[in-house]
Amino acid sequence: MHSSIISRSRTCKPLIFSVLILHLSAPQIGADSSSDALYANFQNPPDASRPRTWWHWTGGNVTLDGISKDLEWMKRVGIAGFQLADVAFGSGQTVENKLLFGTPEWLAALRHAAQEAERLQLEMAIFSSAGWSLTGGPWVQPHQAMKKLVCSDTLIHGPGSFSGTLPQPPRNNGPIGNLGQANRPGQPADPTFYRDVALLAYRLPAAPDMLSCSPRVTSHAGLLDASALLDDDLNSSLTIQAPPDSSPAWIQFEFAEPFAARAFAISGGGGIPVGRLTASDDGETFRTLVRLPGAQLYR
Question: How many domains does the chain have?
Fold first, then answer.
């Protein structure tokens, strides 16, 4: 059985906007007071009708001068308020002395932001703690924090009994499996919490695993050393140059004997990739198993 992963590049379609234009004429002599008020509010919208925005403090890159300039810009362009969110990541301009969440310097900057918001008559809101999910902060103990479920596998040939030590599942902090997590510069590493949850034993069908079949792995760039794709390590990777033209990029796993694949894990790095997963019995005719739609927003 031949199986292949084909990732096809896609050009962005132009966005089509439907615009509703509301024509307002100047109030006529004799118009009632409600019409006058409506027209005046369109000419000079009240704060209640003006937009609010998220305001991210990213990676501790915050200064008092930058706070004032950001808020003055919001006022100048017609924004009526903001919601302050401190997050540990993000790109953009960096500063030498970073303000880390919860430190005295950070709290002083927060006080400065509130004073500037009052001076500029901007509505201010704030996340109740660090991070997107509001679960950060030194008051959250490791056993109370968000967790990931990890596992390790042990293959035992039966019938018979087993006595031994099972391999340790990944216990590092990170989004999934043994994938690592970068810490904010200057901030100590997050405490690590691990606890066993369950031991599961189940019978496997008499079928070889993919690694023991030693598949021949090729791509649009030629023959590949695919050890990084088969080692069950999320920190190892393989880089392949994209085709120089607009032809599709692809990776193919070829087996000497028919192979029944039960699952594929495909990551797009920053979301769902665009492409398709195909399979073939003869290496010539391929059938599509699933299409990968990519980010719906940009299709």
Answer: 2
- Are 212 and 279 part of one and the same domain? yes
Cα of 143 vs its chain's centroid, Å: 24
Return the amino acid letter for 125: A
Which of 126, 148, 175 is the last residue before a domain boundary? 126
3-state class (DSSP) for residue 77? helix
Residue numbers of the chain with a pLDDT score lower than 70: 1-34, 129-137, 183-188, 267-271, 295-299
Cβ neighbours of residue 97 under 8 Å, at least 6 residues apart?
105
pTM score above 0.85? no
Q: What is the model's pLDDT at position 24?
A: 34
Q: Examine the fold and report which residue of 126, 154, 184 is the final residue of a domain before the chain moves on.
A: 126
Reading the block at residue 87, the tokens are 């997050």
Q: Which domain holds residue 215?
A: 2-10+206-298
Cα–Cα dist 219/224, whole Å: 7
User: Residue 57: what residue type?
Assistant: W
Give pLDDT tens digits for 246-284. 888 899 999 988 888 888 777 656 667 788 899 999 888
> Could you tell me if residue 190 is inside a domain?
no
**Could you tell me if residue 19 is inside a domain?**
no
Please name the residue ranges forming H helices in the chain.
Answer: 33-43, 64-77, 104-120, 227-230
Which of 95, 81, 193 has the alpha carbon at shortest distance from 144?
Answer: 193
The rounded distance, in Å, linking the Cα atoms of 234 and 245 is: 30
